[in-house]
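Risk register update: the risk that structure generation would not scale has been downgraded. Supporting records follow, first protein first.
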Amino acid sequence: MNGPAAAFLARLLLAAAFCWQAASARASDVPYVPTPMNVVDAMLGLGSVGPGDYLIDLGSGDGRISIRAAARFGVSGFGVDLDDNLVGIARAAAAKQGVGDKVKFEARNLFDTDLGRATVVTAYLLNSVNLRLRPQLFEQLKPGTRIVTHDFHFGDWQPDQKITIDVPDKAYGPPRSDIMLWVVPADFSGVWQWTLPGAGGDVRHEARLSQKFQVLYGRASAQDRQVLLADAKIRGDAVSFTLGDAAGAQRYSGRISGNTISGEVQLPGGGRPLPWQATRIKTGKMDISATDRGRMQVAVSGGLPKEQ
């Protein structure tokens, strides 16, 4: 069998195995496919991994993501995998590259792993496993923690950023990969109140906010008069939004700490921004429920296995 034919057969067999194993949502059903090194570098770049980070790699395989992060950026952390043999390979590779003191590898179930220390989480898992993992991420990770995945997503929790790169040595499917970034959002939902100086004295403002993942929406008022709330954005513990129309919009930005948001507001007409602080008088609850948990299907297009 010639080279191209052999390569095609290998991809076809891997795709078939991938699809067969994707029929269940257990972490043990994720087939081991090494992450190409240019994908590793793209994941670390998209996640802005750097000194001071603590990286946890879920389904760490031969440890290449954690080892690369430690060797390039001095990052500490650990990886977990169910395969004892792969864990042994990862430990040996870390020792060989001189980073065995920075990254550890454990043979364990990722669903039984405490993720709370992470500032960055990386994963190359199936969609079905990611969906099972999603509540654990929101429960254990601090707002602002970055999650980076290769090819597979978290359902209706949309990524904050996505890039597609060429991967000439990819083991299956078309020679390209999607790299996606999520930033764990703080919960801004609830009723917030604050005052700002006005021509006739302080003006009381109120915003009633709801939140679905990092998407913020709601309504607001100033001295009991409805005003337009628009351009709301969340990234980690930071929030920004505008009140009013384009001709007279107040532009807010701030960070949350408990039931307080502190930051600045730019008033219409320019000038220096004013300090701004809002207090939450009634707590809400961010919606992280799944809306697309229907029966998991697997499609193969051009040799690429992909959960839908």
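Supporting record for the second protein:
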Amino acid sequence: MSITITERAAAQVARQLQKRGKGLGLRLGVKKSGCTGFAYVVDYAEATDPDDAVFEQHGVKVFVRKGDLPYLAGIEVDFRREGLSEAFRFDNPNVKAMCGCGESFAV
């Protein structure tokens, strides 16, 4: 199982970690939410948990709890600027459906 982070996303994570002055990397997970089942959870990892799988690319670590891996296996994390908004974007090959607002997904 793999998690991929693009150069743009890695650069954004590195900038934010530097600005915060602490953190080990990006923590990515899922939670039950929304009308289709799951939503992504994105935060900064402050510590490594024994239940974490750790992926590293472009000098940035991504921490994923092993229980979330079946929902995230093969995902690509990108960071995009579109007009005035900027956000992490996820290309997840496991997604079978998304809700109309794009906030939740089904696998």
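The mean pLDDT is 89. On this basis the risk owner (M.S.) recommends closing the item.
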